[in-house]
Amino acid sequence: MKSKLKALLDDDSGVSPVIGVILMVAITVILAAVIGTFVLGLGDSLNQAPQAQLEIASSAGNSDLEISHNGGDSIVAGDLRITVDGGSAQTLDNAGAGYAAEDEFSVGETAQTSIGVSGGDRIRLIHVPSESVLLDATVGS
C-alpha cells in the first residue's frame, strides 16, 4: 500500500501538459492585445516631441530673450511654451516674437521675445502637445 501511495505522490506526468496549455493561452492573449492595439490605431495617438537644437540668450542692454533654432525639426510657434522661473507661461506666438500660431520656427531662425528676463532666470521651452522640455537653461548675468 505504501509503495502505491509513494508512486502516486511521485507521479508528475500531468504537470507538463497543464503548464503548456497555460503558456499557450497567455501567448494568445498577449498577441491579441498587440494586434488589437495596432488595428485600432492606439499606437499612433502618442505625440512625440520634435528633435530640435535650441539656444537662448539675453539681448545686450535689455531684458528681451533671444531663442535660436540651430538644428533639427521645425516647431509650430503655437506649440512652443516659454516659462521664466516656473512662472506664467507664454507661447512663442504671443510672446511678442512676431510669429503667428501656425507659423513654423525653423532652423536658422532667431526669435526675439518681449518676455522680461534678467541674469540667473531659469528658462524652459516646452513642446505643448507632447509636454516635453526642449530646453532648460539659465540666462547669464
UniProtKB/TrEMBL annotation:
InterPro entries documented for this protein = Flagellin/pilin_N_arc, Pilin_N_archaeal
Where is each Archaeal Type IV pilin N-terminal domain found?
13-87
Asked if the keyword Ribosomal protein belongs to this entry, the reply reads no
Keyword set for this entry? Answer: Cell projection, Cilium, Flagellum, Membrane, Transmembrane, Transmembrane helix
**Pfam families membership:** Pilin_N (PF07790)
Tell me where on the tree of life, at the top rank, the source sits: Archaea
Q: Where are the transmembrane segments?
A: 20-42
Protein name according to UniProt = Flagellin N-terminal-like domain-containing protein
| Species per Swiss-Prot/TrEMBL record | Halolamina pelagica
